[in-house]
Design goal:
Largest sheet: 6 strands, mixed
Low-confidence stretches: 80-96
Distance between the termini: 85 Å
Structural class: alpha+beta
């Protein structure tokens, strides 16, 4: 159930809850799909809109709008299945938010949206791991189980251990199970850089997402200063960047 203190961003779909407020600043937290509260921070109170539209009657394009101000059937209105208090421990609220048009988001908005989803995923995985540990403690006998509307299946998790094999098997047995395979670290040491590059497959760029730190800002500022200084030297250099034929 959404309280009167919850707001949803009209572009990103992020839901936040106001914790404390005064005339200037309001302390808010992001409300994840699991109901957890994360990323407590302070925003200007004026940035939290109590109505869906501006004074001109147009809907806010990029603002936090009170969830209670959204009319029934509005695309941003969260649809939550409310359960009785006695059933909350055995049922999962079904929450559905409209996904924003990512192509229309600015770089800052898209980065913030991705970072929020990353934080929610990490938190959900943490909760899931803890729940699975408790379930494993309760159910130790292998086999299928049904608890309420949830299917569980307990199975053994015995896996081959190379170190254990080396200590248990005879030399002949151990040599018999060895299989040679290419080793990236060994290839990097033996091959030239160009030759090593020929055996590397491009899987596309990787992207790391996290909240920025002071060290990140300092490193980026130093990098920009170095690039600007290099560009200035290149621009004022007496010698041309490319060799040209001397006039006869």
């Amino acid at each position: 159930m959404h309280s009167e203190t919850q707001y949803i961003h009209t572009r990103t779909g992020e839901v936040v809850e106001a914790i404390s407020a005064d005339t200037e600043l309001t302390e808010i937290e992001t409300v994840t799909a699991t109901g957890a509260r994360i990323r407590r921070r302070t925003v200007k109170t004026a940035s939290l809109k109590q109505g869906l539209t501006t004074r001109r009657g147009t809907e806010w394009k990029s603002a936090y709008v009170a969830v209670s101000a959204l009319p029934e059937g509005h695309p941003l209105a969260p649809s939550v299945v409310e359960e009785k208090a006695s059933e909350q421990a055995t049922s999962t609220p079904k929450t559905s938010f409209t996904e924003p048009d990512l192509k229309k988001l600015s770089d800052e908005e898209l980065s913030a949206y991705a970072n929020s989803r990353r934080a929610e995923k990490a938190l959900a995985e943490h909760y899931l791991d803890n729940a699975k540990k408790e379930l494993k403690r309760r159910f130790r006998t292998p086999g299928p189980l049904i608890r309420g509307n949830v299917y569980l299946e307990v199975s053994s998790n015995r896996r081959f251990d190379p170190k254990l094999a080396r200590s248990v098997l005879s030399d002949e047995e151990y040599r018999a199970i060895l299989v040679p395979k290419p080793d990236p670290a060994r290839a990097r040491d033996i091959l030239t850089e160009a030759r090593y590059g020929e055996v590397c497959k491009d899987h596309g760029n990787k992207l790391a997402i996290r909240s920025v730190t002071d060290e990140d800002r300092l490193r980026m500022r130093e990098q920009h200063e170095i690039e600007n200084a290099k560009a200035l030297v290149d621009a004022e250099s007496f010698y041309p960047k490319e060799l040209v034929d001397a006039p006869f």
